[in-house]
Protein backbone atom coordinates (compact mmCIF):
# COMPACT_ATOMS: atom_id res chain seq x y z
CA UNK A 1 0.00 0.00 0.00
CA UNK A 2 2.88 2.31 0.85
CA UNK A 3 4.57 2.10 -2.54
CA UNK A 4 1.25 2.20 -4.35
CA UNK A 5 0.41 5.52 -2.69
CA UNK A 6 3.79 6.98 -3.68
CA UNK A 7 3.76 5.97 -7.35
CA UNK A 8 0.12 7.03 -7.72
CA UNK A 9 1.09 10.47 -6.48
CA UNK A 10 4.11 10.56 -8.82
CA UNK A 11 1.86 9.78 -11.78
CA UNK A 12 -0.56 12.57 -10.87
CA UNK A 13 2.27 15.05 -10.19
CA UNK A 14 4.08 14.28 -13.45
CA UNK A 15 0.86 14.64 -15.44
CA UNK A 16 0.17 17.99 -13.78
CA UNK A 17 3.73 19.21 -14.34
CA UNK A 18 3.74 18.15 -17.99
CA UNK A 19 0.40 19.90 -18.50
CA UNK A 20 1.83 23.08 -17.00
CA UNK A 21 4.96 22.90 -19.19
CA UNK A 22 2.77 22.18 -22.21
CA UNK A 23 0.72 25.29 -21.48
CA UNK A 24 3.95 27.28 -21.21
CA UNK A 25 5.06 26.09 -24.66
CA UNK A 26 1.69 26.65 -26.31
CA UNK A 27 1.28 30.18 -24.97
CA UNK A 28 4.99 31.04 -25.20
CA UNK A 29 5.16 32.18 -21.59
CA UNK A 30 8.42 33.26 -19.97
CA UNK A 31 10.13 31.50 -17.07
CA UNK A 32 8.93 34.32 -14.82
CA UNK A 33 5.32 33.20 -15.34
CA UNK A 34 5.82 29.42 -15.60
CA UNK A 35 9.32 28.11 -14.91
CA UNK A 36 10.97 25.79 -17.40
CA UNK A 37 11.91 22.20 -16.61
CA UNK A 38 15.60 22.92 -15.98
CA UNK A 39 14.78 25.88 -13.76
CA UNK A 40 12.52 23.61 -11.67
CA UNK A 41 15.34 21.04 -11.37
CA UNK A 42 17.80 23.78 -10.37
CA UNK A 43 15.36 25.13 -7.78
CA UNK A 44 14.74 21.63 -6.42
CA UNK A 45 18.48 21.09 -6.01
CA UNK A 46 18.78 24.37 -4.10
CA UNK A 47 15.72 24.04 -1.85
CA UNK A 48 15.01 20.31 -1.48
CA UNK A 49 16.77 19.88 1.86
CA UNK A 50 15.22 22.97 3.44
CA UNK A 51 11.75 22.09 2.17
CA UNK A 52 12.13 18.49 3.33
CA UNK A 53 12.67 19.64 6.91
CA UNK A 54 9.82 22.14 6.54
CA UNK A 55 7.48 19.33 5.48
CA UNK A 56 8.61 17.19 8.40
CA UNK A 57 7.83 20.13 10.69
CA UNK A 58 4.37 20.35 9.14
CA UNK A 59 3.91 16.57 9.33
CA UNK A 60 4.64 16.61 13.07
CA UNK A 61 1.82 19.09 13.62
CA UNK A 62 -0.37 17.11 11.22
CA UNK A 63 0.03 13.86 13.15
CA UNK A 64 -0.72 15.51 16.49
CA UNK A 65 -3.67 17.40 14.99
CA UNK A 66 -5.08 14.22 13.49
CA UNK A 67 -4.72 12.38 16.81
CA UNK A 68 -6.51 15.24 18.58
CA UNK A 69 -9.29 15.21 15.96
CA UNK A 70 -9.71 11.43 16.32
CA UNK A 71 -10.07 11.80 20.10
CA UNK A 72 -12.57 14.66 19.68
CA UNK A 73 -14.56 12.80 17.00
CA UNK A 74 -14.81 9.62 19.07
CA UNK A 75 -15.66 11.59 22.21
CA UNK A 76 -18.47 13.53 20.55
CA UNK A 77 -19.59 10.55 18.45
CA UNK A 78 -19.86 8.23 21.44
CA UNK A 79 -21.59 10.88 23.57
CA UNK A 80 -24.02 11.73 20.76
CA UNK A 81 -24.78 8.20 19.55
CA UNK A 82 -28.10 8.00 21.40
CA UNK A 83 -31.29 9.63 20.10
CA UNK A 84 -31.73 11.48 23.38
CA UNK A 85 -31.93 15.21 24.05
CA UNK A 86 -28.32 15.27 25.23
CA UNK A 87 -27.15 13.32 22.19
CA UNK A 88 -29.00 15.64 19.82
CA UNK A 89 -27.64 18.72 21.59
CA UNK A 90 -24.05 17.46 21.34
CA UNK A 91 -24.42 16.76 17.62
CA UNK A 92 -26.09 20.11 16.88
CA UNK A 93 -23.37 21.97 18.80
CA UNK A 94 -20.63 20.13 16.85
CA UNK A 95 -22.34 20.85 13.53
CA UNK A 96 -22.86 24.55 14.32
CA UNK A 97 -19.21 25.04 15.26
CA UNK A 98 -18.16 23.47 11.96
CA UNK A 99 -20.48 25.83 10.06
CA UNK A 100 -18.05 28.70 10.61
CA UNK A 101 -15.35 28.77 7.88
CA UNK A 102 -11.84 28.32 9.20
CA UNK A 103 -10.65 31.52 7.51
CA UNK A 104 -13.13 33.40 9.69
CA UNK A 105 -11.99 31.69 12.90
CA UNK A 106 -8.26 31.69 12.12
CA UNK A 107 -7.69 35.40 12.94
CA UNK A 108 -9.29 34.89 16.37
CA UNK A 109 -7.12 31.83 16.98
CA UNK A 110 -3.95 33.67 15.99
CA UNK A 111 -4.85 36.68 18.16
CA UNK A 112 -5.43 34.46 21.20
CA UNK A 113 -2.67 31.89 20.69
CA UNK A 114 -0.13 33.68 18.51
CA UNK A 115 1.42 32.36 15.31
CA UNK A 116 3.19 29.32 16.73
CA UNK A 117 2.65 25.62 17.28
CA UNK A 118 -0.68 25.72 19.17
CA UNK A 119 -2.45 27.72 16.46
CA UNK A 120 -1.36 25.32 13.75
CA UNK A 121 -2.37 22.33 15.85
CA UNK A 122 -5.84 23.72 16.62
CA UNK A 123 -6.61 24.65 13.02
CA UNK A 124 -5.40 21.26 11.73
CA UNK A 125 -7.65 19.51 14.27
CA UNK A 126 -10.68 21.64 13.41
CA UNK A 127 -10.43 20.97 9.68
CA UNK A 128 -9.76 17.27 10.15
CA UNK A 129 -12.24 16.28 12.80
CA UNK A 130 -15.64 16.93 11.18
CA UNK A 131 -15.51 14.19 8.48
CA UNK A 132 -14.29 11.84 11.21
CA UNK A 133 -17.15 12.93 13.44
CA UNK A 134 -19.78 12.21 10.78
CA UNK A 135 -18.39 8.72 10.24
CA UNK A 136 -18.09 7.96 13.94
CA UNK A 137 -21.64 9.16 14.66
CA UNK A 138 -22.96 7.08 11.74
CA UNK A 139 -21.17 3.97 13.00
CA UNK A 140 -21.95 4.42 16.69
CA UNK A 141 -25.62 5.14 16.02
CA UNK A 142 -26.06 1.92 13.99
CA UNK A 143 -26.68 -1.13 16.21
CA UNK A 144 -25.11 -4.48 15.36
CA UNK A 145 -28.32 -6.26 16.18
CA UNK A 146 -27.20 -9.90 15.98
CA UNK A 147 -24.33 -9.43 18.42
CA UNK A 148 -25.79 -6.80 20.72
CA UNK A 149 -29.05 -8.72 21.22
CA UNK A 150 -27.18 -11.54 22.98
CA UNK A 151 -25.51 -9.20 25.48
CA UNK A 152 -28.75 -7.29 26.09
CA UNK A 153 -30.68 -10.48 26.79
CA UNK A 154 -28.00 -11.77 29.18
CA UNK A 155 -27.79 -8.42 30.98
CA UNK A 156 -24.11 -7.97 30.17
CA UNK A 157 -24.43 -4.99 27.82
CA UNK A 158 -22.54 -1.88 28.91
CA UNK A 159 -21.89 1.25 26.90
CA UNK A 160 -18.20 0.41 26.64
CA UNK A 161 -19.03 -2.99 25.16
CA UNK A 162 -21.57 -1.44 22.80
CA UNK A 163 -18.96 1.00 21.49
CA UNK A 164 -16.39 -1.77 21.12
CA UNK A 165 -18.78 -4.00 19.15
CA UNK A 166 -19.84 -1.23 16.76
CA UNK A 167 -16.27 -0.01 16.25
CA UNK A 168 -14.81 -3.41 15.43
CA UNK A 169 -17.72 -4.42 13.22
CA UNK A 170 -17.03 -1.29 11.15
CA UNK A 171 -13.25 -1.39 11.43
CA UNK A 172 -12.66 -1.20 7.67
CA UNK A 173 -14.76 1.97 7.43
CA UNK A 174 -12.96 3.57 10.35
CA UNK A 175 -9.57 2.67 8.88
CA UNK A 176 -10.48 4.24 5.54
CA UNK A 177 -11.81 7.41 7.15
CA UNK A 178 -8.83 7.82 9.49
CA UNK A 179 -6.40 7.28 6.62
CA UNK A 180 -8.24 9.79 4.44
CA UNK A 181 -8.38 12.34 7.25
CA UNK A 182 -4.57 12.57 7.13
CA UNK A 183 -4.91 14.64 3.95
CA UNK A 184 -7.31 17.04 5.66
CA UNK A 185 -5.03 17.32 8.68
CA UNK A 186 -2.09 18.17 6.43
CA UNK A 187 -4.19 20.68 4.50
CA UNK A 188 -5.34 22.30 7.73
CA UNK A 189 -1.78 22.63 8.98
CA UNK A 190 -0.61 24.15 5.69
CA UNK A 191 -3.55 26.59 5.70
CA UNK A 192 -2.61 27.70 9.22
CA UNK A 193 1.04 28.11 8.21
CA UNK A 194 0.08 29.99 5.08
CA UNK A 195 -2.19 32.44 6.90
CA UNK A 196 0.08 33.63 9.68
CA UNK A 197 2.46 30.99 11.04
CA UNK A 198 6.23 31.36 11.22
CA UNK A 199 7.32 27.81 10.37
CA UNK A 200 6.46 24.82 8.19
CA UNK A 201 6.03 24.25 4.48
CA UNK A 202 2.95 26.48 4.31
CA UNK A 203 5.07 29.37 5.56
CA UNK A 204 7.68 28.59 2.87
CA UNK A 205 4.97 28.51 0.20
CA UNK A 206 3.73 31.92 1.37
CA UNK A 207 7.26 33.37 1.02
CA UNK A 208 7.59 31.82 -2.44
CA UNK A 209 4.24 33.32 -3.42
CA UNK A 210 5.34 36.79 -2.30
CA UNK A 211 8.45 36.29 -4.45
CA UNK A 212 6.30 35.09 -7.40
CA UNK A 213 8.53 32.01 -7.52
CA UNK A 214 6.38 29.23 -8.98
CA UNK A 215 9.36 26.87 -9.19
CA UNK A 216 9.72 26.87 -5.40
CA UNK A 217 5.98 26.28 -5.01
CA UNK A 218 6.14 23.29 -7.38
CA UNK A 219 9.04 21.82 -5.41
CA UNK A 220 7.14 22.36 -2.16
CA UNK A 221 4.05 20.64 -3.59
CA UNK A 222 6.19 17.69 -4.63
CA UNK A 223 7.61 17.37 -1.12
CA UNK A 224 4.16 17.61 0.43
CA UNK A 225 2.77 14.95 -1.89
CA UNK A 226 5.59 12.49 -1.25
CA UNK A 227 5.46 12.83 2.54
CA UNK A 228 1.66 12.65 2.83
CA UNK A 229 1.59 9.64 0.47
CA UNK A 230 4.09 7.81 2.68
CA UNK A 231 2.14 8.74 5.82
CA UNK A 232 -1.19 7.61 4.36
CA UNK A 233 0.39 4.40 3.11
CA UNK A 234 1.67 3.69 6.62
CA UNK A 235 -1.79 4.30 8.09
CA UNK A 236 -3.43 2.00 5.54
CA UNK A 237 -0.83 -0.72 6.17
CA UNK A 238 -1.37 -0.44 9.92
CA UNK A 239 -5.15 -0.54 9.45
CA UNK A 240 -4.90 -3.66 7.28
CA UNK A 241 -2.78 -5.40 9.92
CA UNK A 242 -5.28 -4.51 12.66
CA UNK A 243 -8.18 -5.81 10.56
CA UNK A 244 -6.29 -9.01 9.78
CA UNK A 245 -5.43 -9.58 13.44
CA UNK A 246 -9.02 -8.91 14.50
CA UNK A 247 -10.28 -11.42 11.92
CA UNK A 248 -7.91 -14.07 13.28
CA UNK A 249 -9.08 -13.38 16.85
CA UNK A 250 -12.73 -13.65 15.79
CA UNK A 251 -12.11 -16.94 14.01
CA UNK A 252 -10.35 -18.26 17.10
CA UNK A 253 -13.29 -17.26 19.29
CA UNK A 254 -15.73 -18.88 16.88
CA UNK A 255 -13.79 -22.16 17.00
SSE diagram, text form:
Elements: H1 2-27, H2 37-79, H3 85-98, H4 102-113, H5 117-140, H6 145-153, H7 159-169, H8 171-195, H9 201-210, H10 214-254
Helix pairs in contact: 1-10, 2-5, 2-8, 2-10, 4-5, 5-8, 8-9, 8-10, 9-10
Which terms summarize this structure?
10 helices; 255 residues; mainly alpha; single chain
The helix/strand class is: mainly alpha
Q: What distance separates the N and C termini?
A: 31 Å
Tell me roughly what share of residues is in helical segments: over 70%
The coarse silhouette is: elongated
What is the CA-atom radius of gyration, in angstroms? 22 Å
How many distinct helices?
A: 10
Mean pLDDT score? 79
Low-confidence stretches: 251-255
What do these coordinates show?
With 255 residues, the chain is mostly helical. It contains 10 helices and no strands. It is elongated, with a radius of gyration of 22 Å. It starts with a helix and ends with a helix. The model is unreliable at 251-255 (pLDDT under 50).
Summarize the structure.
The chain has 255 residues and is mainly alpha-helical.
Amino acid sequence: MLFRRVYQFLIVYIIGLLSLLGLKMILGLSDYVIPGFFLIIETAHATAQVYFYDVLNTLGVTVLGQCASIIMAFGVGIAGRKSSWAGSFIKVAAYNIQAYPIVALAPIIFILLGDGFLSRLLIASMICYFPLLLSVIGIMASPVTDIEHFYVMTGRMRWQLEVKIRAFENLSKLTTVISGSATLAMAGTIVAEFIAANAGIGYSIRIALYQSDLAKILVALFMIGIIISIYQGMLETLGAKIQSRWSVINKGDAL
